[in-house]
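Workshop exercise sheet. Pairs work together: one partner reads the sequence aloud, the other fills in the structure field after running the prediction. Swap roles for the next sheet.
Pair: D.N. / O.F.
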Amino acid sequence: MNELILIVDDDATTLDLVSMGLEAQGFRVETAVEGTQALEKAADTDFDVVLTDVQMPGMSGIELCRALSAIRADLPVLVMTGHASMDVAVAALRNGAYDFITKPFELDTLQHHLDRALEHHRLKREVTSLRRRVRAQSSSGGLIGESRSMRELRDLIERVAATDVTVLLRGESGTGKEVSARAIHNASSRADGPFVAVNCAALPDSLLESELFGHERGAFTDAKTARRGLFLEADGGTLLLDEIGEMPLPMQAKLLRALQERVVRPVGGDRTRPFDTRIIAATNIDIESAVETNDFRQDLYYRLNVVEIEVDPLRARDSDVLLLAQHFLSVFSEKHGVSIAGMSKEAAQALTAYDWPGNVRELMNAVERAVALARFDELQVADLPRRLQEFQPTSVTFDASSSEGFITLEALERRYVTKVLAASDNNKSLAAETLGIDRKTLHRKLKRWGADAG
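Structure field:
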């Protein structure tokens, strides 16, 4: 225990007794005999808690609470009073005190109050640190995180933004592929131009062509006016083709031609129109497998995949969870007009223990729900979705200082696939179905391992 406590009391006997008692408990202690002296010390020293009497000559304990709150809002003040008056307690709390204790008190009772105040102080500091780190990363276009993969992602985005090459963003749903695309756009020479995004899986073939390339008036039943299309709307800027792996094959051929020739032909039109648009594509599927099964054109894949950027799932960068949670906490507190200072230790533990299958999008929704339901100035476990409250992580304990006894992820995958094949009596179709992959992907893995016997 190394916490530093400032005790303020004009009564020398009380000051000595409380100081000796706390020092015996392992606390470091400084003292002041009146409010002005305490205020001067607090301005120069990083105390963890202030313990002050109320009735003192000159500056009272209530006035000291108010003054400390103005210069050190994160510093908890515990008020001692010999007057068992609710009015005094309320006045102290209204003027910034964290808690109060009535004299005379037992040392164990005081330590209980101090432990609570110290935990509050620790959480306040953590929240302040998180907010500072979030603000420091605000220039990264929303790519918040200090994990190695996020640092590498920001570095790669910065480098690719300096060029005008086509980018293929890959990653699970909800990982932040669109945020990454916006970051590329905002860091590029096209930042002053438009950023346009379209979900290629959300529209049927016929409507997607019109959405991308535009149409002439009367080109189809509802075409009462002409429309330019997203390629031309994004002219001078960036067009994100999200869920590109879900694009129908006929539309893939038209997209390939547009990318090769850098022109589009509106539906129902008889002439082409040039465009100056940077293309970024995004997908959450195994697009190589789609190429092998002829569900995605190989020539289009190579056209799009000039630079490939992988956006890791949140479970692979769990050190970023609290940073992101604090960011969303600030955003949704402002949106919903509430004041949430941070989160309890238990709520933080629940957030970091969960595996986040829905990635950053799921975390964002969970924090917004918690903010909407919060009853206190800190998020509690009870405010979080039930799936987080009831989640039981699977943990593995090992000596992090040694890699002895461990194998690579590639070797582990190979062992598992081999066991599934053996259990399937070498039936590759059944094994692929069990593994949740298609047969061609299984063949590709076995070929890479030199184990594909047909």
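Discussion prompt: Confidence is low (pLDDT under 50) at residues 395-405. What would you look at next?
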